[in-house]
Specification:
Length: about 120
């Protein structure tokens, strides 16, 4: 029996030789498996790229949302600080007491003096 070789690119089984036919089937299966691996790698690369694109879109959206939240927070803080500064300015301003306020202060001072000296009320 002479030895016949079968090249991977010419996978035609020989008619009368079962061993050669089996080898041909194995080589065909190997070629199909290699093609499946190449196809699966391509699909995996496409899936990975879609995931990267989604992650980039999500990062852009998240950054935009964070900038919006930060800006709103900064505006709210600035408004609250302005209110507090206005109140502080109003408290620092000198003004004359009204007659009623003068009476209340004098009464408070008298009460404090009696309390400190132990004088009867």
């Amino acid at each position: 029996m002479r030895k016949l070789t079968v090249a991977p690119d010419n996978l035609q089984p020989l008619r009368d030789d079962g061993v050669e036919a089996a080898i041909t089937r194995v080589l065909e299966a190997e070629t199909a498996a290699r093609a499946d691996v190449v196809r699966a790698r391509g699909e995996a690369a496409e899936i990975a790229e879609r995931a990267r694109q989604r992650a980039r879109r999500l990062a852009v959206h998240t950054d935009r949302r964070m900038r919006t939240v930060r800006a709103a927070f900064a505006a709210r803080v600035a408004a609250e600080v302005a209110v507090l500064e206005a109140e502080a300015d109003a408290l620092r301003a000198e003004r004359d007491l009204t007659p009623a306020e003068v009476l209340r202060v004098e009464a408070a001072v008298a009460d404090l003096a009696r309390e400190l000296t132990g004088a009867p009320s």
